[in-house]
Amino acid sequence: MDTFNWSKEAKNQWDNRAMFWSERSKNMWDHGSRKDIIPFFNDFVETGNRVLDVGCGDGYGTYKLNELGYKAVGADLSVEMITKAKERLFDIPFFQADIGNLPFQSNSFDAILCINVLEWTEIPALALKELRRVLKPGGFLCTGILGPTAGPRNNGYRRVYGEKTISNSMMPWEFDKLAKEMDFVALNGFGVYKEGVKAEHYQQLPITLKQALTFMWVSIYQKLGE
Question: Staple 74 to which of 62, 79, 139, 141, CB 3.0 to 4.6 Å?
Answer without folding.
Answer: 62
